[in-house]
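Lab notebook page, bench 4
Experiment: in silico fold of construct C2
Operator: M.H.
Input chain length: 156 residues
Purpose: comparison with the prior construct
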Amino acid sequence: MKLVSLLSERRILPEMVSETHWDALGELVDHLISIGCVESGRRVDVLAALHAREEQVSTGIGHGVAIPHCYCEWVEEPVVALGRSPGGIDFEACDNAPVHFVILLIVPKNQPHAHLQTLASIAELFSQCEVRRKMTEALTAGDLMRALEKCEEEAA
């Protein structure tokens, strides 16, 4: 599944301010709440699920990318947000590099296969230096969305 099919400009934060991965999770979840993609009453549950996953092993996959994710029973379709941190976030990534792109996934508990395919496609896309360069050069949420669309088209 393509990332652009799960995103919209409203779900993109081009200027994250968080410095730690715990704060970054809260920043993205709060953004999803503010635009109506997650109910405010679910905040604690979502953060608890994300924290539990991060405590197993960091989702910082290297090359300045993290893909925090969790399963939630109340989600019927995947909920995705993309955040970019120009200054970088300490995500305890496998390569110890600061994370500049955070792709947050909240997925239905009954769709583990689709979830794994989505994770793999995101990881593969962002493993490409040219994709990260184009996403870094984009200025706004709209620019990021267009850059992502172009990168996914070129990768197809």
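Observations: Residues 138 and 144 are 5 Å apart (CA to CA). The mean pLDDT is 91.
Next step: discuss at group meeting.
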